[in-house]
Amino acid sequence: MAKKHEGVIPVKKNDVLQVTIEDLTHEGHGVGKVEGYPLFIPNALPGEAIDVKVVKTTKNYGFGRLMEWHEKSPDRVEPPCPVYDRCGGCQLQHLSYEGQLKAKQKQVQEVLARIGKLPHVPVHPTIGMEEPWRYRNKSQVPIGRSDGRVISGFYAKRSHEIVDVNQCIIQEQVSDQVMQLVKEKANELGIQPYDELRHKGVLRHVVIRYGRTSGEVMVVLVTRSNHVPHLSELVDMLKENIKGLTSIVHNVNNQKTNVIMGDQTTVLWGREVIYDSIGNIQFAISARSFYQINPVQTEVLYQTALEYAELTGEESVVDAYCGIGTISLFLAQKAKKVYGVEIVEQAIEDAKINAELNGIDNAEFEAGPAEVVIPRWHKEGKKADVIVVDPPRKGCDEALLTTILEMKPKRVVYVSCNPGTLARDLRVLEDGGYQTKKVQPVDMFPQTSHVEAVAVLEL
Ligand code: SAH
User: Fold this and answer.
1) 459 C-alpha to center of ligand 1: Å?
2) Which residue in the list 90, 168, 396, 417 is annotated as catalytic?
């Protein structure tokens, strides 16, 4: 490691210097150090020697712009997407897929060592996709206006400016088709796009969901007002053109907010839900259901969690942060009993429906904060042989970790979307008597810098 930077900032704005890139941040920026002072440099890759221009400095780190290469990484590739440099969706298209998988493994290793003080835990090579494109089963496309025309696409990096696109190569093909058709039709019929600044206009977002195993498609039209001029023409156009279309839903969101959908949802045509399967479990997905967006890798992730749980059929299992019960239902097939807990009530309703849909009667679900419900279960005398947690980015609540230590399950399986909080929480469990056996990163979001990993601990 380079010596830690102390006190004096060794560079100033507009300096141009040569650095070698040592690392990649979780945002996909290269890190080059000047006398220990880190500079974050977009588009630079580990191993590259570059000229960097300093664009900003703060006390502990700065930002730079890549000016010229002296040596390029052998893992550098030409990003296939024409708007990659502007769009905020992907961060790693300039790195080969092999390189991405290695970088994600390395990131987990480093964070476990640094934050978790766990340098010796085996971190397996990241399990990637055979075809790391066209995997997203859900697209939320903002609609806007530019030069008097309706545009749609994705937000630019750190902004709400829409980059107008006709295709996105990490989403399903059908999403491209819907996106283009809605844009064309809105232009033709004069349907006003939503104007975020003035809170005026009608069409805010089009959301497309796709059931990969069923081929079913749902289109959600999110509008500011209840009344939408030419709505029936829009519906007819979609019905005529979209193969697999199963559901068209209208959602009204009249709030000034970044949240995409509002509270009012009506079915305009077809069913209220589409279906999809992960492994042998079927799921009903409605417009607002939470559902994993990469179904192929979700199966890999859950198989890993299941394998790590080492169930024999006799166990009582707790699934904390269970969402719509996806992991719970997977585990229920191999356990005696599964108890799922999740804070969003609608998700718990979905979990119950999904259990019934699959004829699973050994899974129970309760809505509430995991850190309140599970301590109560413990007080009531409920036992757990295995506890699975799959928390949001901020990790597990401390009260939950304390309860896990008190309940003393044989095994804890930790599914994480943030290596930093994973490492922090593993340290707490280690200090309480558990040992982390192994960690498996799974690439749920190719071309982006998101890292997902499963860890197993034993008492
Ligand atoms: N295991 C699920 C969902 C994981 S995402 C799956 O694989 O599909 C994390 C989930 O934690 C979200 O559904 C979120 O609503 C839920 N959540 C967030 N804070 C929570 C808390 N304090 N208690 C319980 N659930 C919570």
Assistant:
1) 25
2) 417
Verify that 299 and 269 share a domain, yes or no: no
Measuring from atom 22 of ligand 1, which residue has the nearest CA?
A: 369
Q: Is the CB of 444 under 6 A from ligand 1?
A: no
Same domain, 312 and 250: no
Query: Is the pLDDT confidence value at 62 over 90?
Result: yes
Same domain, 243 and 349: no
pLDDT digits (tens, 9 = 90+) for 37-53: 999 999 999 999 999 99
Structural domain includes residue 428: yes
Whether pLDDT at 15 is above 50: yes
Active site residue 168: no
Q: Is 95 within a domain?
A: no
Whether the pLDDT of residue 367 is over 50: the answer is yes
| Domain span at 156 | 138-278
Q: Are residues 395 and 454 in the same domain?
A: yes
CA-CA distance, 97 to 57, in Å (whole number)?
Answer: 32
pLDDT for 6 equals 58
Write down how long the chain is. 459
Residues 361 and 217 reside in one and the same domain: no
User: What CATH code is carried by the domain that includes residue 25?
Assistant: 2.40.50.140
Closest ligand 1 atom number to CA of residue 291: 8
The CA distance from 322 to 119, in Å, is: 30
**Ligand 1 center to 442 CA (angstroms):** 18
Cα–Cα separations (whole angstroms), residue 93 to 29, 137, 170, 335 = 12, 19, 11, 41
403 CB within 6 A, ligand 1: no
Distance 383 CA to ligand 1 centre (A): 21
Instruction: Supply the residue whose CA is at minimum distance from atom 13 of ligand 1.
Output: 323
C-alpha to C-alpha distances, 158 to 86, 162, 197, 434, nearest whole angstrom: 10, 11, 17, 40
Tell me if 308 is assigned to some domain: yes
pTM of the model: 0.91
Number of domains in the chain: 3
Q: How far, in Å, CA of 73 to CA of 44, rounded?
A: 9
